[in-house]
Amino acid sequence: MTTLTFNHLPSGNAFVAKASKLLSLAGFDNVMAYIRREMAVRAAVVELQQLDDRCLADIGITRGEITGVVRGNFKNSA
Fold this sequence. Notes:
Layout: H1 12-25, H2 29-49, H3 53-58, H4 66-71
């Protein structure tokens, strides 16, 4: 029986760069733009989640609002 491994796949940004190049050649620029944006959004969410509640209050958001604020879906009720 054959076991498949994915050790040959590049990791991190090298993988994204290679995938970007291949998909751009195939005409999938919109897909790559979406992937880049999604990676940036996720990184921003993680960074904000690492702040304590006092820091979040200083910038005017609560922990439950982080994703909405980063994605631009936040409606300020004040």
